[in-house]
Design a protein that fits this description.
This protein has four helices and four strands, in the order βααβββαα. The protein is α+β, with helices and mostly antiparallel strands.
Length: about 130
């Protein structure tokens, strides 16, 4: 599943062009875009199509692919967002019932590996900011 997040300080937001395109594709007239799921396929297609033109004021929208079998939460600090993986209880229970210890460990450890890689990315952003 592809998820949209804001990769800079300032906050998540869509440009007027992105809002208009979303409404055209969705066949409606959404007024508050903060309620649209960040993995909404129509919204994802708008971001992919417009690229940087989809960014609202003070936002830098980016896409990230969530591995199959996980959910996500968005953690935010001062507008800068990070995606955290969440284990799905039913998936974990299925793996426990199957009794494959290695698969259970792999599934659980993916969350920790994801956090380590993501932390490196966030640190890199902060280092670039310090150099300016």
């Amino acid at each position: 599943m592809r998820v949209i997040y804001n990769a800079c300080f300032g906050g998540y937001g869509l440009s007027e062009k992105a809002k208009k395109l979303y409404n055209e594709k969705a066949g409606g007239s959404v007024k508050y875009y903060g309620n649209i799921a960040r993995h909404d396929p129509i919204l994802v297609s708008v971001i992919e199509e417009l690229g940087e033109e989809a960014n609202g004021m003070c936002s830098e929208l980016a896409l990230i692919d969530i591995p199959e079998g996980y959910d996500y939460v968005i953690d935010e600090y001062d507008g800068l967002e990070r995606i955290e993986l969440v284990l799905l209880e039913d998936v974990l229970r299925d793996k426990i019932r199957a009794g494959d210890e290695e698969e259970i460990v792999r599934y659980v450890m993916m969350v920790h590996k994801w956090a380590d890689v993501y932390d490196d990315f966030v640190v890199d952003l902060e280092e670039e900011t310090d150099e300016i």
